[in-house]
Amino acid sequence: MTTQSRKSPDAARRSEASRRAILTAAFELVGEVGYAKLSIEGIAARAGVGKQTIYRWWPSKGAVLFDAFLALTEGQDGREAALPDTGDLEADLKTVLRATADELNDPHYDEPMRALNTEILQDPALAAAYAEKLDGPMKELKKERLRSAQRAGELSDDLDLDLAVEMLWGPLRTRWLERGGPLTHAYADRIVETALNGLRHRA
Amino acid sequence: MTTQSRKSPDAARRSEASRRAILTAAFELVGEVGYAKLSIEGIAARAGVGKQTIYRWWPSKGAVLFDAFLALTEGQDGREAALPDTGDLEADLKTVLRATADELNDPHYDEPMRALNTEILQDPALAAAYAEKLDGPMKELKKERLRSAQRAGELSDDLDLDLAVEMLWGPLRTRWLERGGPLTHAYADRIVETALNGLRHRA
Amino acid sequence: MTTQSRKSPDAARRSEASRRAILTAAFELVGEVGYAKLSIEGIAARAGVGKQTIYRWWPSKGAVLFDAFLALTEGQDGREAALPDTGDLEADLKTVLRATADELNDPHYDEPMRALNTEILQDPALAAAYAEKLDGPMKELKKERLRSAQRAGELSDDLDLDLAVEMLWGPLRTRWLERGGPLTHAYADRIVETALNGLRHRA
Amino acid sequence: MTTQSRKSPDAARRSEASRRAILTAAFELVGEVGYAKLSIEGIAARAGVGKQTIYRWWPSKGAVLFDAFLALTEGQDGREAALPDTGDLEADLKTVLRATADELNDPHYDEPMRALNTEILQDPALAAAYAEKLDGPMKELKKERLRSAQRAGELSDDLDLDLAVEMLWGPLRTRWLERGGPLTHAYADRIVETALNGLRHRA
DNA sequence: ATCTAACCGAGACGGTACGTCGAGTCTTGAA
DNA sequence: TTCAAGACTCGACGTACCGTCTCGGTTAGAT
Questions:
Q1: Which domains does chain A have, with CATH numbers?
Q2: Given this model, what pLDDT does residue A191 score?
Q3: Nucleotide F28: nearest residue by CA–C1'?
Q4: Residue C112 exposed, middle or buried by CB count within 10 Å (0-12, 13-18, 19+)
């Protein structure tokens, strides 16, 4: 977020130490006590920081959480990652979806991620920021892999790539959100097969 | 919900008028002030009811909201509805998905539904109740239509129907949750076509 | 004070235990930490009471303090006290003024009384309440003794009794407020003599 | 005040413009918002000055206010004033007390003066400074007039002049502090008469 | 004529307390 | 026993100021 507050504090004088302490505290706390019991007051206390320092730089609890996630991904930065591309689309997609399933199963990420999704649900501004800063880059990688498959003739040229990505990763995400069942590798594989081949019966 | 409280109040003496007033007030309020500002106190005041009457019969804010939704669907009850089945699966699915899109676009349902989803995200018990009482019956109707298509040879016999339903309705729901774009009829149609035919290019 | 709050809480349901705990805590705290550092939060914590319970019944810190004093004097109630009247006005007044000086010298009363005066200085409503409930009864006793002296021919009939009281007790009070010097019995005696005889030289 | 701070700032480099701006701002603000809502931040903002500049030169809010009053009286300085001395003590005292009453009635001085008195009540150091710098010189003038009356045989030689001053000006000041009634010329006159003649009845 | 140490405006910082809201519990009196 | 009403303790909210602490930028006075 790092949205400009109405009084426009002087970002040049901002304390980097406090910023980091706040993001770390927020991320840890949401994992420990859950999102519902996460409070600005608690974050400030854990971070050893005045509440005002949080209110000065973030408009809401959700914005802090969002920046905490951003800070995490920034740690992985500079790598300009790409999805695996062995030439076998189906195999590659299975590899990636299995990894996604594993990540979602990691209890370390479950509660914070769930918390972030809760906020996104309620806050359009946060949803937009999420789409742009966190989900966007990853989605671009996915689409790039699909584009590569289009060039290789595996996927049709007029495919809606956004929709394709949604159809591949959506079921996993939905099952996670709604706790609709276990996120197994077998499930990941079945999604890939079903999406690629379509629902329709073929003779 | 109507979960049993630990003191197990005597349901026989329960005031039906208060129950209805509470559910109505909850549904209206969540639409007016949003989920974040919805409070038990506010519901009680609007319903002209003591707070204790709410705490006596419901374990949480989310449970009240959930029952409010249940009450809505019960109003439509007794009809044993089914999805349209003209013999043309693709056309039927488009019809239904367009209707779903329209419903999600209805501002009257947007905020309450979003609120319910927020709670479900955080509360596994509520998620289970939602899956069983609200989403379940509708999902069964969808799967029934697909089963009919299997019988007609339009869909393969070994298709995972749950996954199929997710693949058809998931994108619409995800786009709505994340406010990822307009929910148009054209989008609904494209989902159906893509899901049925699969992503893979065919010669 | 016990001023009516705007929401007019139901005094019948008021917790007497909380009320007493609050007044006691306020009185003790002001003696321990001084008026400047006296806080509603501190009073609530010491009294084992929610802040809201204070805000519900009192409009300000000063009003609590005032009621704390009222409660003290009510403890001495039922006695219908009167000032000593031996027939010798000068001796009686010296007795009473010496007692007043002793009281002001008592460190137990100094800080709370000073605190109350601070509030009175700033708050006209509180000043009026003080004049009526705390200072008034005592002043009436003083005037009654002077009236008795008028009847005995010791004081002239057209004397302004309010002014007389002020002239007798004022110097003591002012010296105390301004810390203008020690409040000795000798000083008390000199006040009485000077006030009774007047400043003017007599042949 | 101008009390030495522990870091002993270099008074030679002190900005006179800032000092004046601070004192002016403090005096104006206390008149506008009242003493309770007077804040160092507010003064600094109004004066266009950094907070540190206030903390560097004054130890407390009260000290600033005190200096603001000092600055006012310094404006009237260099004249070596004296109270009127026509030879008629009673008339002269009535003149001066009427003037005092008028001053206390001036709303322009009421709030600031009340604020200063509030601080004096709580802060012994400030009380001493007040007694020495502000009240002292004026009291000396009053005592000088009384001494002149002693020489003229109007007042007895063994009169306690401090007590006499207190007895004359005290009632006015007390009535003002406690808002005990209107400060009229008639009241001023009655004080003088009562104090001079004493309370005692004379045949 | 520069150097340099202080003051200066500005304002971020860790804190304390404010006065308010709502949570969930408890008590009272009427039905 | 349920209900409306609402007082209670408690915890968090978001704000206002506290007094301390840099940060650059002036602005002397001593070199």
A1: 11-75 (1.10.10.60), 89-197 (1.10.357.10)
A2: 96
A3: D13
A4: buried
B148: helix, coil or strand?
helix
Count CB atoms within 10 A of the CB of residue D102: 12
Would you state the structure tokens that stand for residue B187, as one six-digit string? 């989008």
Q: Min CA distance, C77 vs chain D (Å)?
A: 25
**Mean pLDDT for chain D?**
90
Q: What is the pLDDT of residues A21-66, one digit of tens each?
A: 999 999 999 999 999 999 999 999 999 999 999 999 999 999 999 9
Q: Please, what's the b/e burial string for D161-193 (b: 16 or more CB within 10 A of its CB; e: otherwise)?
A: bbbbbbbbbbbbbbbbbbbbeebeeebbbbbbe
Q: Are A193 and B188 in contact (CB under 8 A)?
A: no
Task: Tell if the CB–CB gap between B199 and A159 is shorter than 8 Å.
Answer: yes
Q: What beta strand segments (E) does C49-170 contain?
A: none
Residue C5: phi, psi to the nearest 5? -75, 165
pLDDT over 90 percentage in chain B: 72
Q: What's the Cα-to-Cα distance from A132 to each of A128, A129, B132, B178, C12, rounded to whole Å?
A: 6, 5, 35, 12, 58
Query: How many C-beta atoms surround the C-beta of residue C72 within 10 A?
Result: 14
Residues D37 and D29: their CA atoms lie apart, in Å, by 9
Question: What digits encode the pLDDT tens for the residues B57-94?
Answer: 999 999 999 999 888 877 665 456 789 999 899 999 99
Minimal C-alpha gap between B116 and chain A (Å): 10
Pair of tokens at residue A142: 């996915």
Instruction: Say yes or no: Cβ of C55 under 7 A from any atom of strand E.
Output: yes
Provide DSSP, A15-67: -HHHHHHHHHHHHHHHHHH-STT--HHHHHHHHT--HHHHHHH-SSHHHHHHH
A159 and B34 within 8 Å at the Cβ level: the answer is no
